[in-house]
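Working notes for the structural subgroup meeting. M.R. asked for a predicted model of this chain before we commit to crystallization trials. I am recording the input and output together here so anyone reviewing the notebook later can reproduce the run.

Input as submitted:
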Amino acid sequence: MVYNTVFNYFGGLRTQSVMAADDPDLTVDLIARAADELEFLKLINSVPSLCIPGVIRNAIRRYEYCWLPLCNATRRVLPAPIDVQWVWHVHMLAPYHYLKDCMAVIQYIPDHFVMSATERNSKLTESSDKWSEMFPQEPFYLDYDIVPPMMEKPETQLSYDLELAVTRQAAFYYNVSLSHYRENGFLSEALIRYIKFLKLKKLYSDAFLVPCYDVDLIWHTHQLHPLNYEKDTEAYLGRMFNHDDTTTDRDRESKLSQADELTRTLWRQTYNEEFPRAGAMYRGEHPRLKMTAFNEGNAHYLCAKAGKVTISDIKVHGFPNKKYKLKFHLRLFGNANKVTKVTTLKGKEVEKSWPDVINTYINTEQHRILQVICAKVIGCGLGSGKYTGQHTTTVIAEMDGINPLHNQPHTFTKNLQLMSCVDNSPTEMSVEFNLNIPHPPGILKSYFYLRKGTNMKEFETVNLGAGMQDWWGPMPLPRVPASVPNQDQVSYASHQSVV
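Returned structure, recorded in token form:
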């Protein structure tokens, strides 16, 4: 096997590397199949219910009682339903358990290869037909939006706890999901590092080695070709290379952390280079509960908008004195206290109604508040009047809440309470009107940027207590050497997303 010149993802040109005599002979195109593996993991990640315990347990039942017998009957590599395929995928990442369990259940080892989406789709009909023939009472396709109730754990011949394993593996995709993992140069380098990883295992056969995520992706892809993996690693190492993902504790004194330090040390001694690689390290737990993806709906909600608005059916209740005319003002306020007059209405009745439609144009960048002012008119002078009560209401919530894809009118009824005082007599007045938005407002050009937090400090030092990772976000802090004092102190800065 000869490796051609590859381009490092970060822009550098790697010198040509020719296979040494002691390199393993790998029988799978791991670069191409690793790219297919990333697409499969992306598909799994797009079905959130596959992380729900009831769905997982049902999928394991379907895998053991339906899929493995089907594999035994067909002796062909076919794609399974997505829930079953995910369980099968996880089972193969425990290679010794996979061989043992398959022999216990069906006395046969089903082979597998990582399929592209095209390959998978082309074979699904064959899988579905055979499934329906063998298990007519069990649907091949499920509605994953419907979560089944948690069933009793069925009897099993599987030695591997797949429920726990599926939960652990659900976190893997987040760590390999960034776009550079799909770069051919990055994957080519990952394959070279995987071969070095196998060579390190051959040199230190009893060592528990921990890979970076680029190496782990290639390693997973190799294992997902179980017969090739068994043959390749037995030929090179003398026995099949086990993969153990049960060790997840990342505390400083844990088995995983100590094994990571050992791997770094042995790699440095053997290859005269550092093992960690930019873009291939642990990103932290999935930020699903800490951060949300910024999508088009979020942008529409946050952006400034503009559109036609009509105000109709204005009613004032409780104006207490017929001696005075009532003056009713509608004004729009925005940035820098800019005021836009909408209308002024007058009337003398205690219960006054204006059914007329008032047309205006609202730009939420300039008009954020609709102000209602009621005043009693004194004399006949222009502008004469004395405020009796006022109230403000936002117009942003109504504009933001309209789905831009639904081109239909929206009407919001406003009912505002005004504490007023007429002739030194406190009284309650109310104003009611309809705010009508005939069409979804248009989005104005907007820019998003980060601004320093409200404390206006670049950074400040805090003591980091146990469990405080949830406080600062999903990214883990760099490991601090044991010799460094005040290890619990970190610097942080808070920022705001501004539009």
